[in-house]
From TrEMBL:
Organism of derivation: Stutzerimonas zhaodongensis
Record InterPro entries: PepSY-ass_TM
UniProt KW keywords: Membrane, Transmembrane, Transmembrane helix
Coiled coil: none
One Pfam family named in its UniProt record: PepSY_TM
Protein name, entry field: PepSY domain-containing protein
Amino acid sequence: MSSPIAGAHPEASPLASRTQHPLLALLIRLHLYVGLLVGPFIFIAALSGLVYALTPQLEDRLYAEQLYTDSTGAPQPLARQIEVAQAHIGEAASLSAVRPAPKPGTTTRVMFSSPELGGSESRAVFIDPITAEVRGDLLVYGTTGVLPLRTWLDHFHRSLLLGEPGRIYSELAASWLWVAALGGFALWIIRRRRATGAVRSKGLRHWHAMVGLFLLIGLLFFSATGLTWSRWAGDNIGVARTALGMSTPSVSIALDGEAVAPAGEHAHHGGMAMPIARAAEPQMFDAVLSAARENGIDAGKVEIIAAPGPDRAWTVTEIDRSWPTQVDAVAVDPRTLRITDRTDFTTFPMAAKLTRWGIDAHMGSLFGLANQLLLAATALGLATLVVFGYLMWWRRRAQQRADRPGMVEVLLELSRRERWTAFGVALLLGYCLPVLGVSLLLFLLVDLLAMVVRRFGARSVRRNA
C-alpha cells in the first residue's frame, strides 16, 4: 500500500511519470496532498484516542474513593441517598438524574445540573448506598458518565480543547481518513500487479504497506464511527437515517400523546445538554425504579430522570454500554406508576443497532479490555503510518521532478467524461461531508497557485536563456 495516510510515493517510479493514465496520476496526487496536509490532524487524533482507550482502569484507581465502597448490608432507599446528596450540594444546583449503585461495592450517583456547566456535563455526588455517606463530588460527562480525567481527554480528542470551532480538526481527520485508506489500498494493488517478485521493495515502504493493509478495516471503522458524531457530516447522516426510517427510537415522555423525546445516542460524546428534572419527591425515585424493574428494565446500570414538567413522564433508561447491549428504556406515569411508552433494543432498526455498537466500540466500552487493547493497537498503528509516510516523503523530496504535473494539471488531462465524473463525485462528497469538500477546494486552490508560479518561473527562465 502506498500510504493510507501520508502520500509518500516515489516520484521517480513509473507510477509518477507523465506516461501514466491521468486517473492514476490524480489518485497519486490526491493521496499525497491528503497525507501531507491532513496527516498531522490524523496523527493527533490517533494519539489522543490511544490514551483515551487506555484510561478506564486508571480512572477506576484514581477515583476509587468515589466509585467504590467496602460497606456491607442492606442498601438505604434511594430517597434517603438523594436527601443526603441534596443536603451536601445545597441550593447550588438542581437534581437532574439518579444512577443507583449498579452492583454491591459500588456507589450511587446523584447528579445535578447548573447553568455554569457545559453541555452534557453534570455534577455528581457519590453516595455509599449502605451508609448513605457522601463519598465524593465530581464533574461527570455524558451518558457514559466519564470522570474528569477522561472528560479532559475526550475534549482534547474531539476538539483540541478549543470548543465548537476545534471540532473542525476531528471532522477533517475523519472525513479524509477513509479516502486516504482506500486510495492507499488501491495504489498498493496497482503496484503489486506491476511489480515482479524480484524487484519488490522490502524497505520502509514495504513495512508501511503491510501495516496499512493490516489496519485497513480498523481505519475505515474509525472514519465511519467518527463521522456519526461530527458537527456537519454527522448532521447529514442523522437526516439521512431519519428520512430512511432508521433513526434510533426514544421513549416519549408526553402523557397526552404528544411526541417529546429525551437526548439521543450521541449525548455521551457530543454537546447536548443534560436533561433537567423538575423538583420531585425523593420517594418517587424508589417507586419509579420498582415499576421499571417489574417491566423488564433489568440492567445493573440505569438512569432515572424525573418528569421535567406537568403532564410528562419519568424515564428509566438502561445505560450499560458493554456486550450484550442493554439500552432499553421506559416512560413511567408518576401518578399511576403505569408504563406509558418503551423502547427495546431488540426492535431497533439495524442501522440504529450498528450505530449503537459502532459508537460503543469506538469508545472502548463494548467488549471491555479486549476492545480497549484493539483500539489502542489500531491507533498506535495509525500514528506509525503517518510517521512512515512523512519519512518516505522526506527521503525522496530531492527526487521531485520540476515537470511533474500537479492535481489541477492532471484534471485538465482527463477526458471530458472523466473530468465531469470526477467533478460529480467531488460535488456529492462535498455535500455529504462539507469539511472534506471545503478542504478539497483549498487543495485545488493551493495546487493552482503552485502551477501558476511554476509556469511563470519556467517562462522567465526561457526568456532569460
